[in-house]
C-alpha cells in the first residue's frame, strides 16, 4: 500500500485487523497515529498554545495522545472532551494524559486547534450545539488540524452530515479515505497530509499521482508515435479543440474528419472532409489508427447518429465524449467496444448510467464494469475507473477549468495519450493529470485554447 491508497472505513478497519493479527495492538496503532499527527502539528505550529477536542471513540484517543506528546515538548496544551471515552484504547490514551479535561461546551479558543472529535466511526451528523462550537473554535484558531477527517464528513461518500468548518490541515491516518478526495468534504481543508501508521492494504483505488512519461524511441516515426482521428460534426470549434489537444499530446499524427474543409488551427493537423457516414467509415478503416475521438461538436441529429454508428463499428480504440455520450445514452452504453474510454460530466453520466448508488468512486467503478470501458467521471473531483476495479481520483484541480471547451480539450488529450500508450487506464490517468497541471500553469481566467499551449511544457516536466 502506498500513502496514496484510498480505503473505505470498513477497509481501514480490515487493515487495522491485519496489523493486529501480526501482533500490533490497537493502542500501539493509536500511539503511532498520535505521534505522526503530533509531529506534523509541531512542525506547523511549534509552541503556540493548542486546544485539543477529543470525542468518545478512537479519534478522541488519537487526540489524547497528541495532547500528551505535544505537552511533553513544551506546548501549552488544553484538552476539551465530548463526554466519556467509550473504547478501551481511547480510555488508555485518556488515562495517560495527566492534565485537566474541560467540557467541550465550555472550551475557549486557542491559537491552534485540533479536531479529534470523530473520524471513520461517525455514524450521523454532529448535534447542532457541538457542530457550532467546533465551527467557532476552528474559526478563532490561526492553525487548525482535522485528525483523520474533519468531524461531520461521511468517510465513504464525502457528504457533509452536519456543518463542517474549513480546516487548515487534514491529517489522514494510515491511508486516504474517499472523503479526502471527494467533494464537498475535500473542500473542508486547505492541505491534506497522510501519516503512515504501518498498516497494509491493497491499493486498487488511489489518489491520481503525477505520471512518468517517456520520450519517443530513437527509431520512432509518426505512425509508431500514434495516429489519432477526430470525427467532428455540426460544431466545428469543439472538434478542432480536441484535434489541437491531440496534436500537442505527444501523439505522432492527427486527422480531423469534419463536415467542412479546411478546419483552421495548426497546419500539422490533417484536415479531411467526410460528410456522409460511408465516407467516415472509409476514413476510419485505416488499421494504423490508434485512437478515434467522437463527441465534441458531433451534434445530436440523424447525421450525427449515422457518424457515431460509423465510429462505433470501426474497430479502433475509441474515446467518446459530449454528444456521443448523449446519443449513446438514448440507446445503450453497452454498445461501446471494449477498451474504449468514456469521459462524461455529471449530466452525461446520469443520462448514460442512471442514478447509481454509492460514492462517486462506486458509481464510476460500476459504470466501468457495466460498459467494459474506462470511465473518466469529470468534475472538481475526477474519478478514473477501469472495468477491472482499479480507480484513481484527482482532486484539487483549478476551478478555472469550469469554462467552455476544456472537456473537448481533455477528450483530445486522452486520445493522444491512448495512441501513445495503447493502455486505456494509463492514458486516462496521464491525460487527467496533464490537463490539471496545464490548468494550474495557465493561471486565472484562461480559455480552453490556452490549456493546449501548456501541454509541451507540462509533458516535458514529466519526462
Ligand atoms: N483504523 C485504524 O487503523 C486506526 C484508527 N484510529 C483512529 O480511530 C478512528 C476511528 O475510531 P472509532 O471507530 O472509535 O470512531 P470515532 O470516529 O472515534 O467515533 C466513534 C464514536 O463516536 C460515536 N458517534 C458517532 N457519530 C456521532 C455523533 N454524530 N455524535 C455523537 N457521537 C457519535 C460513536 O457512537 P455510536 O455511533 O455508537 O453512537 C462512537 O462512540 C479513526 O478515524 C482514527 O482517528 C487510530 O487510532 C489508529 C488506527
Ligand atoms: N470546478 C471545477 N474544478 C476543477 N475542474 C473542473 C471544474 N469544473 C469543470 N472541471 C473540469 O473541466 C472539464 C470540463 O469538461 P466539460 O464539462 O465536458 O466541459 P465542455 O463540454 O465545455 O468542454 C473537465 O475536465 C472537468 O473535470
Ligand atoms: K476528526
UniProtKB/TrEMBL annotation:
It catalyses: (6S)-NADPHX + ADP = AMP + phosphate + NADPH + H(+); (6R)-NADPHX = (6S)-NADPHX; (6S)-NADHX + ADP = AMP + phosphate + NADH + H(+); (6R)-NADHX = (6S)-NADHX. Its cofactor is K(+); Mg(2+). Binds 1 potassium ion per subunit. (6S)-NADPHX binds at residues 58-62, 119-125, 148, 238, 297, 345, 408. Signal peptide: none annotated. K(+) binds at residues 59, 115, 151. It comes from the Bacteria. AMP binds at residue 407. SUPFAM superfamilies: Ribokinase-like, YjeF N-terminal domain-like. Residues 12-205 form the YjeF N-terminal domain. Pfam families: Carb_kinase, YjeF_N. CDD domains: YXKO-related. PROSITE patterns: YJEF_C_2 (PS01050), YJEF_C_3 (PS51383), YJEF_N (PS51385). Belongs to the NnrE/AIBP family. Homotetramer. Catalyzes the dehydration of the S-form of NAD(P)HX at the expense of ADP, which is converted to AMP. Together with NAD(P)HX epimerase, which catalyzes the epimerization of the S- and R-forms, the enzyme allows the repair of both epimers of NAD(P)HX, a damaged form of NAD(P)H that is a result of enzymatic or heat-dependent hydration. This is Bifunctional NAD(P)H-hydrate repair enzyme.
Amino acid at each position: 500500500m502506498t500513502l496514496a491508497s484510498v480505503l473505505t472505513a470498513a477497509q481501514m478497519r480490515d487493515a487495522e485487523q491485519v496489523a493486529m493479527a501480526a501482533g500490533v495492538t490497537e493502542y500501539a496503532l493509536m500511539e503511532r497515529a498520535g505521534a505522526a499527527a503530533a509531529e506534523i502539528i509541531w512542525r506547523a505550529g511549534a509552541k503556540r498554545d493548542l486546544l485539543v477536542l477529543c470525542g468518545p471513540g478512537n479519534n478522541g484517543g488519537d487526540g489524547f495522545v497528541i495532547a500528551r506528546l505535544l505537552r511533553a515538548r513544551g506546548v501549552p496544551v488544553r484538552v476539551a472532551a465530548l463526554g466519556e471515552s467509550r473504547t478501551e484504547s481511547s480510555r488508555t490514551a485518556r488515562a495517560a494524559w495527566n492534565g485537566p479535561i474541560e467540557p467541550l461546551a465550555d472550551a475557549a479558543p486557542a491559537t491552534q486547534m485540533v479536531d479529534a472529535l470523530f473520524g471513520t466511526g461517525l455514524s450521523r451528523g454532529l448535534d447542532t450545539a457541538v457542530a457550532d462550537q467546533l465551527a467557532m473554535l476552528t474559526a478563532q484558531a490561526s492553525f487548525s488540524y482535522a485528525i483523520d477527517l474533519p468531524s461531520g464528513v461521511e468517510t465513504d461518500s464525502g457528504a457533509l452530515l452536519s456543518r463542517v468548518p474549513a480546516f487548515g490541515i487534514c491529517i489522514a491516518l494510515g491511508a486516504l479515505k474517499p472523503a479526502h478526495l471527494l467533494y464537498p468534504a475535500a473542500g473542508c481543508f486547505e492541505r491534506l497530509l497522510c501519516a503512515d501508521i504501518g498498516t497494509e492494504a491493497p491499493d486498487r483505488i488511489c489518489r491520481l499521482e503525477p505520471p512518468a512519461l517517456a520520450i519517443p524511441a530513437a527509431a520512432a516515426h509518426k505512425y509508431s508515435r500514434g495516429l489519432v482521428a477526430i470525427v467532428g460534426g455540426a460544431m466545428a470549434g469543439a472538434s478542432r479543440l480536441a484535434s489541437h489537444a491531440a496534436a500537442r499530446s505527444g501523439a505522432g499524427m492527427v486527422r480531423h474528419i469534419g463536415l467542412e474543409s479546411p478546419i483552421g488551427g495548426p497546419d500539422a493537423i490533417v484536415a479531411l472532409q467526410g460528410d456522409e457516414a460511408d465516407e467516415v467509415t472509409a476514413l476510419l478503416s485505416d488499421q494504423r489508427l490508434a485512437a478515434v475521438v467522437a463527441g465534441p461538436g458531433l451534434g445530436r441529429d440523424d447525421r450525427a447518429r449515422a457518424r457515431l454508428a460509423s465510429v462505433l463499428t470501426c474497430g479502433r480504440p475509441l474515446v467518446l465524449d459530449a454528444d456521443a455520450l448523449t446519443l449513446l445514452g438514448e440507446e445503450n452504453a453497452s454498445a461501446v467496444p471494449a477498451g474504449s474510454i468514456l469521459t462524461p460530466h455529471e449530466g452525461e453520466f446520469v443520462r448514460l448510467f442512471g442514478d447509481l448508488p454509492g460514492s462517486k468512486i462506486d458509481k464510476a467503478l460500476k459504470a466501468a464494469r457495466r460498459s467494459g470501458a474506462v470511465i473518466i467521471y469529470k468534475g472538481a473531483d475526477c474519478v478514473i475507473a477501469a472495468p477491472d476495479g482499479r480507480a484513481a481520483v484527482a482532486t484539487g484541480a483549478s476551478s478555472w477549468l469550469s469554462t467552455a471547451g476544456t472537456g473537448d480539450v481533455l477528450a483530445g488529450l486522452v486520445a493522444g495519450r491512448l495512441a501513445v500508450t495503447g493502455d486505456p487506464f494509463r492514458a486516462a490517468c496521464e491525460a487527467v493529470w496533464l490537463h490539471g497541471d496545464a490548468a494550474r500553469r495557465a493561471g486565472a481566467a484562461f480559455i480552453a485554447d490556452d490549456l493546449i499551449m501548456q501541454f509541451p511544457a507540462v509533458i516535458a516536466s514529466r519526462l
